[in-house]
TrEMBL record:
It comes from the Bacteria. This is Methyltransferase. Residues 22-229 form the DNA methylase N-4/N-6 domain. The lineage of its organism: Bacteria, Bacillati, Actinomycetota, Actinomycetes, Kitasatosporales. SUPFAM superfamilies: S-adenosyl-L-methionine-dependent methyltransferases (SSF53335).
Amino acid sequence: MPFSLHQGDALTVLASLPDDCVDAVITDPPYNSGGRTATERTSRTARQKYTSAAAEHQLADFPGENMDQRSFTFWLTQILTEAYRLTKTSGALVLFTDWRQAPAMSDALQAAGWLWRGTMAWHKPATRPQKGRFKQECEFIHWASKGPVDATRNPVYLPGLYSASQPRKDRQHITQKPVSVMRELVKIAPPGGTILDFCMGSGSTGVAALMEGYDFIGVEKTAHYTQIASDRLTEVLAKSTSQDDYVLAGPEE
């Protein structure tokens, strides 16, 4: 099966999976950020933090957004330690973050055993201007490896800067990432490998993985988003199968 989805707590689910079963971990955990003060960051929901009053959608909230920074770093370190165990030697970790949590996330990934390789920028053109301030039009992507990088397994040349706005049409998650960016990021895994996302949300990492010919393991805490991810991935597979059938059924030369 090209994908398997698990609804439940990420740490519990990852502990049930076997060693060395994935080639890359690509994930976008709740940032537990957003707000000027500790009270604002720990007392508001994800919707209150990341959805503007003028938003034209009513997307479902998601949990896990109310930890202080020390708790967040401890939580993420535990999960990334399990993810490290699941990843094959030379496999990659790709981890979305924002400017507030970038230091905590880099601490967590190194404490979990990963070798921090650098930080990339994700530029979001469609962000609102702020009078008297610089625009906050970038988020960031830490990447790391499990041991030395063996470039012979996957001799790709990937950019260190990505530019695309969050999807507006058919958007299904408050913090949904653009599939165009995810399709580039998944290429850090060797062709035909398996990619893990332990905070998969609406499944954009999985959609990108299937489109690029990878298998996918996804973990999501809520039933709502697990179902959305399942529907999206099933649709991708159906389109792929339809295209394959078309090729097979085409006229003989």
